[in-house]
Structure formats: C-alpha cells, structure tokens
C-alpha cells in the first residue's frame, strides 16, 4: 500500500501509510542511545511492540505506561516521566517516542520539550484526531485545575508516523470525535473536505470508508500549511483554534469526561451562532455546521445551565488578551476572521442557541 509524505515546512514530514515502524530509527537522530516509548494503558501491547523493535535495532529502549485519555495530561504524570528519564540517564542525544492518541502525544511532547530543556520526540499517533491534528505542529501541554493545556511548550517533533492500521481498534466514538477536527479544517481552509463528508457521511465514520485517506491527508495538509507559517501562534495559527474557545470550556466544566472532538463540535456551532448574531455569518452556513456535524453523529448542543462556569473558563482561553475575549469566526467557508470583545449579551445568546433543556 502507498505511503504519503506531507512536509511541515522544511522541518519534518508527516508520513501516512501502513506499518511504518521501519522509519522510526531513522527519525531518532544520529548518536541516539536511549529511547523512551510513552504509551497509554489501552495500547500496552502496541507500545511494548515498538519498544521491542527499537531494542532489536540496538537502542537502549524503555517503555512507560501512562493513564488513558485526559487523565494522562497532568503535572503528576509528567513528573513520573521525568523520573523515568532521570533514572535511565537520558541525555540530550536521547529521544522520546509517543504511541497513542492526542492526550499521549501532548504529554510526551511536553515531557520531551522540558527534559534538559528539549530532547527529540517522534510521534506515532494511533487515533484519527492525533493523526490529523495533535501529533502535527508542535503544540504540547498538560492541563491544570484551572483549565485546558494551560502549561505547555511549542516543541515540533522530528517526525510523525501515521499507521492507518492502528485505527482499526479505535472505539467508534473516539474515531467520530476525531472527525470534528477534520471538519474544522474543512470550514477554515479546505471546502473539499466538507463536500466529501456531505457526499457520504456514513462512510466518513468508518476506518475503511472510501474517502478516509483523502480526508486525513487533506486535514494534515491544512494543519501543516498553517504551522509552517506561524509555529508560535502569533496570528495565522489561531485559525486552528476554531470552535475551541467554547469547546475547551465545555471540557473543563465536564472535568474532561467529554471527548475533545465532541466538545469542539459543539464549540464550532456555538461560534457559528455567535458569528451570525454579530452579523458576520449567514443562516445557511450556520445550518451547514449543524447538518454536517449531526450527520457524523457529533453533538451540537450542550446543557443549558452552565453559563457562569463556561464564561469563566472562556476567559482563560489562550486567544484572550487581558480582559478581551477573542474568537475565530468565519465570514465564509475558508475565510476566518477575528471577533474581538463581542457584546456579553451576544455571548449568552449564542449559548442559548446551542443549549438543550
Ligand atoms: N497539540 C495539539 O495540537 C492538539 C490538537 C488536537 C487535540 N489535542 C489534544 O488531544 C487530546 C485528544 O486526543 P484523542 O482524541 O486522540 O484522545 P485520547 O488521546 O484521549 O485517546 C482516546 C482514547 O483512545 C485510546 N486509544 C488511543 N489509540 C487507540 C487505538 N488505536 N485503539 C484503541 N484505543 C486507543 C486512548 O488510550 C484513550 O483512552 C486532547 O487532550 C486534546 O486537547 C491536541
Ligand atoms: O494546533 C493548534 O494551534 C490548535 O489550536 C489545534 C487544536 O485542535 C488543539 O486542540 C490545540 O491543542 C488547542 O490548543 P490551545 O492553544 O487552545 O490549548
Ligand atoms: Zn483541538
């Protein structure tokens, strides 16, 4: 089966295909002696397989298991991993490999960014969301009690290996959650993604769907093009945060029991409604958001009794400047603009539009 390479500027490639482990040693860097493979509990066998294959190639290979999903993105788990690296004597020529979903790649990337002020990391994403988004672009981080991804660093990987076979074991709800970030790329930059999903929404929800590979590669291309121009989110990169101001607030209010992609789905409808109320988006495009996300089985409403908590969480969004709340909105498909300091009445009215009883 074919392999695709999508370059992120001149920095590194995101490789999409099947059985890509042979590429891993070449990405680890010359002189690398020790490698720590970080994987979640659910992928114990896969993580051990990667460790063994590196051991067989002559590396001093270690594996560390971390909790599944968002429970891994804590200071305690990061401290556990710093301990593992310290005990094994990892130096600046050694490396970290993440094998898992976005929670694992965010955590492992952060640990690599902070160990000795930065060692090499290679991501082997195993969820749809991590392939198209989390493993690409160098945003790493953990959560704190006050909010999502509040501690982190920009630390691009040396490479990203997306083995499509790993998606076969991914639970359906996690697969579908990843589609929210694919659709996000469609709305902000690549309308063909929206056309493909609209033509066959059921097919899009299956790992063997006819357009899955194209959807994945198009979404990666959108992200790669953006981060190659603005790694540290001075301006353009904010478009990748479409739907996240409200989405991250939902995740925090739900204490991370809600999947990231599901929260972003609601967040995109929220911000579309906000844009409509602010006179920036027409009714048809708002309804297109609802129709596409609903057809994929993603949520587009949220409970209606959490406004003070949601607003409080939104104020800590990284796009905020002082007390100014800032949103990425669309004037049309592929035309992201900023909405700064919207009237508080509009913020709450948009919430009413996505609230269910
Ligand atoms: N850094 C970024 O740019 C960026 C972008 C998007 C999202 N994120 C972050 O990514 C996280 C969400 O990532 P996610 O949706 O991949 O979820 P996740 O990492 O929480 O994984 C979901 C679940 O699936 C399990 N799993 C992973 N791969 C599997 C497989 N192949 N088979 C069976 N089970 C598997 C995991 O152990 C976990 O329980 C959030 O923390 C979000 O903030 C980061
Ligand atoms: O890569 C980016 O930039 C993004 O915003 C992609 C998002 O999908 C992702 O969830 C990211 O982790 C959000 O970052 P944050 O800066 O809002 O914490
Ligand atoms: Zn996201």
From TrEMBL:
Q: What EC number(s) does its UniProt record assign?
A: 4.2.3.4
Assigned GO CC terms: cytoplasm
Q: Which GO terms describe its biological process?
A: amino acid biosynthetic process; aromatic amino acid family biosynthetic process; chorismate biosynthetic process
- Provide the binding site for Zn(2+): 181, 244, 260
State the InterPro entries in the record.
Answer: Dehydroquinate_synthase, DHQ_synth_AroB, DHQ_synth_fam, DHQS/DOIS_N, DHQS_C
Protein name (Swiss-Prot/TrEMBL): 3-dehydroquinate synthase
Its annotated compartments are: Cytoplasm
Per its UniProt record, what CDD domains does this chain match? DHQS (cd08195)
Q: Which cofactor does it need?
A: Co(2+); Zn(2+); NAD(+)
The 3-dehydroquinate synthase C-terminal domain is annotated at 178-320
Species source reads: Pedococcus dokdonensis
Positions of NAD(+) binding: 68-73, 102-106, 126-127, 139, 148, 166-169
Matching entries from NCBIfam families are given as:
aroB
Q: How is the cofactor bound?
A: Binds 1 divalent metal cation per subunit. Can use either Co(2+) or Zn(2+).
Signal among keywords:
no
Q: Which GO molecular function, any one, fits this protein according to its record?
A: nucleotide binding
């Amino acid at each position: 089966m074919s392999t695709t390479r999508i370059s992120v500027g001149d920095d590194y490639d995101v490789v999409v295909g099947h059985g890509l482990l042979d590429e891993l040693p070449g990405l680890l860097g010359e002189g690398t002696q020790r490698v720590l493979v970080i994987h979640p509990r659910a992928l114990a066998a896969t993580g051990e397989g990667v460790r063994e294959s590196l051991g067989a190639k002559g590396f001093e290979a270690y594996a560390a298991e971390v909790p599944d999903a968002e429970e891994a993105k804590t200071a305690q788990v990061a401290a556990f991993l710093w301990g593992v690296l310290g005990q094994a004597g990892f130096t600046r020529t050694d490396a970290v490999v993440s094998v898992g979903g976005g929670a694992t790649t965010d955590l492992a990337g952060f640990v690599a960014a902070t160990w000795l002020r930065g060692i090499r990391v290679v991501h082997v994403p195993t969820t749809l969301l991590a392939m198209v988004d989390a493993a690409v672009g160098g945003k790493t981080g953990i959560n704190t009690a006050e909010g999502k991804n509040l501690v982190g660093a920009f630390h691009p990987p040396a490479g990203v290996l997306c083995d499509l076979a790993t998606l076969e074991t991914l639970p359906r709800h996690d697969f579908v959650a990843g589609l929210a970030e694919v659709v996000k790329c469609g709305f902000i930059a690549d309308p063909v993604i929206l056309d493909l999903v609209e033509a066959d929404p059921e097919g899009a929800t299956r790992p063997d769907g006819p357009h899955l590979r194209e959807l994945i590669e198009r979404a990666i291309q959108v992200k790669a093009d953006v981060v190659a121009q603005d790694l540290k989110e001075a301006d353009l990169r904010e478009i990748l945060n479409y739907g996240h101001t409200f989405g991250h607030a939902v995740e925090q209010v739900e204490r991370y029991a809600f999947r990231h992609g599901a929260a972003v789905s609601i967040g995109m409808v929220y911000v579309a409604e906000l844009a409509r109320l602010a006179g920036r988006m027409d009714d048809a495009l708002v309804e297109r958001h609802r129709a596409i996300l609903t057809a994929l089985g993603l949520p587009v409403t949220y409970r209606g009794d959490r406004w003070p908590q949601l607003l409080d969480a939104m104020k800590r969004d990284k796009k905020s400047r002082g007390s100014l709340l800032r949103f990425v909105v669309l004037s049309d498909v592929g035309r992201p603009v900023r909405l700064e300091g919207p009237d508080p009445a509009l913020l709450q009215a948009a919430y009413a539009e996505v609230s269910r009883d």
